[in-house]
Amino acid sequence: MEKFKYLDSITIELAAIAASIAGGCRPCLDYHFKKALESGCTPDQIKEAVELGKMIRQRPITDIYEHADKLIKNENES
Questions:
Q1: What is the C-alpha to C-alpha distance for residues 9 and 20, in angstroms, rounded to an integer?
Q2: CA dihedral 51, 54, 60, 63 (to 10 degrees)
Q3: Distance spanning both ends of the chain, measured CA to CA
Q4: Which segments of the chain does DSSP mark as H helices, in order?
Q5: How many CB atoms lie within 10 A of CB 14?
Q6: What mean pLDDT comes out for the span 57-78?
Q7: Is the terminal CB of the chain with fewer CB neighbours within 10 Å at N or C?
Q8: Is the per-residue pLDDT at 75 higher than 80?
Q9: 19: closest CA among 55, 44, 73, 70?
């Protein structure tokens, strides 16, 4: 990829896999999974990228759950 001076193709594809998971984009995941393998990524590297994407996607959900619980708790205390 000529756009990136410091990132190699493996790093780019692993980041793209994590972004695909975080964004919930199935066609993106299919594309970048294939490209990652072609770039030389191992299944273990891909697995870690998937786990990273899951963590990124889960964060806003966890935050909103905690916020909702706090609102209910505050309402019950007033």
A1: 16
A2: -60
A3: 58
A4: 9-23, 26-39, 43-77
A5: 23
A6: 91
A7: C
A8: yes
A9: 55
Domains of the chain: 9-77 (1.20.1290.10)
Length of the chain: 78
Between the alpha carbon of residue 27 and those of residues 32, 37, 43, 53, 77, the distances in Å are: 9, 16, 19, 15, 47
Q: In terms of Cα–Cα distance, which of 20, 17, 74, 6 is closest to 43?
A: 17
What pLDDT is stored for residue 62 in this prediction? Answer: 87
**The pTM of the whole model exceeds 0.70:** yes
Q: Which residue has the tokens 């793209």?
A: 16
Write down the mean pLDDT value for the chain. Answer: 94
pLDDT value of position 13: 98
* Selection from 9, 12, 8, 10 nearest residue 44 by Cα: 10
